Structure formats: C-alpha cells, structure tokens
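Shift notes (night). Ran Cyclic nucleotide-binding domain-containing protein while the centrifuge was going.
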Amino acid sequence: MKFTKSEATSFLLIHPEHPSKLIWDAYLLILTLFLAYWVPFSLSFIEETPESMTKFEFAISLSYIFDMLLNFNTSYYYKGTLITNRWKICRFYLTGMFWVDAFSSFPYEWLTNPPLQNSQVSTPKYFGIMKLFRFIRMAKLLRLLKGRKIFYKIEDYILNEFISVIYAIMKIAIFLSIVAHWIACLFYYTSNSQSNSTEFTWVKFFLSGRAEDVDVFELYVTSLYWAFTTMISVGYGDITPQNPLEMTVTVSCMVLSCAYFAYIIGNMGSLVSKHLAYDQRKSEIRVGISRYLRKKDIPKKLQRKVMAFIDNLMENISSYRLRDYEVLDLLSQPLRNEILDFLYHDILNKCSIFTRYFSNDVIANLTKALQVENYSPNDVVFYEKQQSRKMYFICSGLVSIMHGSTNLVYKKLQKDEMFGEIGFFVGHNRTATAKCSDFTLLQSLDLSEALIFTDKQDDFGSIINNLSSSCGKQNYSVLMICCFLCDCLGHVAKDCTVEKIQSGIDSIVINYKKRKTKISKYTDAFQEPKSPIARPIYKKKVVPEKIFKDDLEMQEKIKKFMVEQAPHYNELIPGSKQDIVDKILERSDEDSCD
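Came back to this:
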C-alpha cells in the first residue's frame, strides 16, 4: 500500500486511492459475500456448525479487526482536499463507519464454539443465550453496506464499455441471488422451527409422500425454488405455506421481494437502454448522412468513402461515450490544463526541436494549441509547394510522404512520428506531399494558435524567427531534418543529390517502360500518336502515377541504384542516363536468373 507522510505527525498514512487499498477492500468484500451466503444457511439448515467453518469465520473476524486498524491510518478526501491530519482521520472514522465495523468484526462464533477449544469439551449450545449469539452472527453482514462503494471503485478501473455492462449485470445478479437465498433460508427456518409442534408445515407436507429421507441439499433447492417463484410473482402452487405463521412469512416475503424484484427489473431496463442509446444515436447519424448523400446525388465512390470515415470515427469514440472536448468542458481551467499537459506533453517532447530550444513552460502552453484531425485513406494532409504553418503528430494510422509530381513514396510514417516541421518553424512551402494510407488520427499544431497561447512568453516568437533565419538556402540542420533517401542531415529528399543523378526520375521510368513494352524509342510514351491510324499499343494512355503504383519493385531498384551511385554524381554526364537504365535492367535480369 502507498503511504504518505502526515502533515501533523510523523506517522505513515495509507492513500485512499492506491491500488493496494482497493485490492484489500475487494478481498474483504469477497469474504463478506461468502458470509452473506454461509451464515443464513448455517442458521437454517445446519444444527451444529462444523469446527472447520467456525475457525474460518474466526479468521474472517480477525481480517475485519485488522481492517479497522487500517482505517485509523487511511487518509480521506473532504471537498476535494486530501486530509492527512491524524486527529481528523480518527474523528472522521469514529463518527462514520466505525460502529458498523465494530459490530460486524466482533468474533461471535468464539462465544458459541471457541475454535481453539478442545473439540471433546461440550458447550451449552441449546441454551437460549447460545442461540442468541448464533443469530447475532448476522451482524457480520452489516459489512455489505460498504460493498456498494467498493463496487464503484472497481468500476472506475474498467475502460471497455462491454465489460462495464457485464460487470453491472453481475452486480445485479449477485444481490438478487443473495435476497433469494435469504428468503429461502427464512422460509425453511420458519417450518423447521415448528417441527416439534403439532402444526402441519410445508416441510412435513413435502416429506409426507417420500419413503426415504431427504438430504439438506434437496431441501435447500426446494426452498430456493419457492423463493424465486415467489419473487417473480409466478407461484406454481406445488410448494405452499401450511399454517398461519408460514402464511405471514410468505406475505412479508412477497411484499419485500416483489418490491426488490421491480427495482432490479428497472435497473436492468435502464442499463440496457443506456447501453443501446449511443448505438441508436450512431445509427440515426449514419442513416441521416446516407440519406443526405443520396439526396444530393453524391457519387457512389465518394459516398462509400464518407461512410467508411464515419464508421471509423464512431468506433474510435464508442469506447468512452464522451468526446475529449466534452470531458474537458466539465472541468475547471486549471484541471483542464493539467490534463492537456499530461496527455500531450510527451507528444511534443518526442520532437527534439522543442526539447532543444524551448522550456517546459512553453511546451506546456503549446499542448493547449493542439487540435485533433481525422483522415480517411487516400486523404491528402497537404500538397507539395503548399503554404502552411502547421506540423503534425501521428496518434494512429499511416501517412505516406511522397514526391508531388510522380507520387514516389519517400517514406511511410507511423504512430508517434511527426512531419511538417519545415512549414511550422521556417515557413517554407511544403517540400513533399503527405497522404494518409489508412484511417489516421493526427494532432496538429498551428503556429498562429501557438503564438496565442505563448503570448506572454516573448522568447517563443524570437526563437521561431531565429530558426527561420538559420534555414537559408534549404539547409535545415538546425531543425534536425534528415533526408528520407540518404539519411543525411540538413536537406530533404526533394533536394537530395541522389535524386538528381539521372536528371529526373521520370526519364528512367519512361525508358524502362519503353524497353518493357517495346515502344519505339522515338515516340513519347505519354503522348497520344499523331497518326490518323490508331495503333493498338496506344489505345490506353500511359500515366506516370500508374507506372509507379504497379511497379513497386522498379522503384526499389531505382532508389537502391541511386544510393550506390551517389559518390560518382560529379563524374556522370547527361548522356549517361541510358547507361543507368541499362545497368538497372541488367541487374533485374541477374535477379531473375538467381
């Protein structure tokens, strides 16, 4: 358990929300639930409690007594403030649950059957005082009053909505079975207490038609069967009260059990309706959007794209039922700032630029400027040469950084990676196109919003200006920018020398495609033939994007060859482009032979 120093004393205190405290409370709750079944059953169906069970009950009492000592050393919250003053803690406990714990912790079983006493020594179990002590054992069930609070604490640790519903149903089922168990025990005890009298009871009526003795288990199942049929107001009539006392008990049980059963049914209905309410709302939104798209004659392909995005968005927020801004709007501004700093401080710290040039206070203020953006597959975050002062942090999904004109993928970024630093810090046009390859969740940081939240911190603006002025001539070393092709520091893939070895990657692909399809070397593959007679080979226009998309293996060979030939860039001449293509094709033939 977690201990904290008290403000008034030097003694150690237990924190009320520590997981070890919750485990201890759950352990006591399990013991209490066991007693809720065992104590009524032993009073009704068992004339003499076994010595092993008496010792076990005594061990439970010792656990309760130890829990009382812990409660005197456990701090508590009062109006949101953690109280650690020992005198206040003792007074709070003595005026609260102390007396309930005291009555439920007393070892009453010691008075009727001491567990350490010699089993051969007889005890006056049939005296009235001994019977009274046996029934006083029911006081241990007062601990059930604390069970509701423990159940709520356990529920706070459940994040999955489906498991939460199962947990709620389990709680209802447990307490329903306890009530039915108590009614069954009371109904049997009422009849069994009159066994020595001349009154005709339901037990005598049940045993009258049987030639052999009935064991305790069958009698208990029969009583439990009667309890459930009475609680749900069915009453088949095969088990009925036979004398006025049993009728009185039956009427009392019917009134109480019907009220409790109605309460249970109401809770079950409320639980199901709450669980289905959000699903119904999702269905309404989905149907409404679908009708709107059809009414506006939106193309089918775009309709499917919109609906896939809506389904993914609903699935992401269905586990929590509340969106982020709905949760944060319920909190005060200081609490909201603390949560934002905790959630997003690590995101900004993953960017070495922030940790290198900005203080923790500036980073904490920048977390307030982060905005959530959702994208579907093939959505473009920004295009090459576009002007934008945003940078992005990937929370989930996949983003491809690619060449603007050829769609050649430089690199695919995954969760916990970032992009867009040059536009944010320097203000240059985008050097590549960012396109989502999956349903993607991004955190975006806009410079204009960042300046608002860091208004009183002048060093932020000055640092941004210094970084921008230090990145002249496309040298981004101060931003720790590395090329996606050669991994060298200071430049981007667009300006990489490896990229310029062939004086344009389109020429290599065109020439390779000419060889592959046996197109004449004097004809441009991207132009329609000028001859009035159509040739079969030109029926379908060759698109560069299609070439890159269908021939990924060729992309890898080109990039590998460019990296190998980078040191010899100065020795190459423009006329050697065809030689490069020949070498690539030779390598391709060698790989196929292998």
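The radius of gyration is 39 Å. Residues 1-157 form one domain.
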